UniProtKB/TrEMBL annotation:
It comes from marine sediment metagenome. Pfam families: GCE_fung. The keyword Transcription regulation does not apply. Keywords: Hydrolase, Serine esterase, Signal. This is 4-O-methyl-glucuronoyl methylesterase-like domain-containing protein. Residues 38-208 form the 4-O-methyl-glucuronoyl methylesterase-like domain. GO terms for molecular function: carboxylic ester hydrolase activity.
Length: 209
């Protein structure tokens, strides 16, 4: 994936109130000619900062609302099937980088954290990230590459997340390299298919992340 951009720009699209919770929708622009973007929704409780942040993808916004009731800033970003601003990253950074869908979304989550770090109300030492299923995979990928994420909850991420490839079996409803590289070849880099039937030869496995 590309190095962190040094030209992040944020534009507040709208701000409103839901009871005493502030809802702020922000669009981030970065990368070559600011062509890459990421839409972020912040749900800010009525409390004195700095506050911890609970990050998740757009499709899990309800989880962020639950976190707000517990004193967190809820943060939902456009890095999921329901709303995905990261799809264009492949073309923007081609051919220098060939990161595939889940890694693009994970990298996009780090750009959200770049923005969070500019806000005084954010407790930089307490940023958590979660996602379910394929979003669990991308959440763990993001945490593996970004030490600013202090807690990660890869809900049912399975293989490609918390489960080692070596101990995967479709018998137990976990996705093998064969299944992912044929059914979802755009999730993970296509070179993973070189290890179909040879999982024991992988140079690194998920438990090492």
């Amino acid at each position: 994936s590309p190095p962190p951009p040094d030209n992040l720009r944020a534009e507040i699209l709208r701000e409103s109130k839901d009871g005493d919770v502030t809802i702020r929708v922000v669009e981030l622009f970065f990368g070559p000619q600011h062509r890459a973007k990421m839409t972020v929704e912040l749900l800010i409780p009525p409390a004195e900062g700095p506050l911890p942040v609970f990050m998740t993808q757009h499709c899990h916004r309800l989880w962020a609302l639950i976190a707000v009731r517990r004193g967190y800033i809820g943060c939902a970003y456009a890095g999921s099937d329901s709303k995905d601003d990261t799809e264009d990253y492949a073309n923007i950074w081609y051919p220098d980088f060939d990161f595939t869908r889940l890694m693009r979304r994970a990298w996009g989550a780090s750009r959200v954290i770049d923005y969070l770090y500019t806000l005084e109300i954010v407790d930089k030492e307490r940023i958590a990230l979660t996602g379910h299923s394929r979003n669990g995979k991308q959440s763990l990928m993001a945490a593996a590459f970004d030490e600013r994420i202090k807690a990660v909850i890869p809900s049912s991420g399975g293989t490609g997340a918390e489960n080692p490839w070596r101990f995967t079996s479709e018998k137990y409803d976990t996705e093998s390299i064969t299944e992912i590289s044929t059914v979802f070849p755009y999730w993970i880099h296509p070179r993973i298919r070189f290890f179909v039937g040879a999982e024991h030869k992988l140079p690194v496995d998920q438990n090492l992340l």
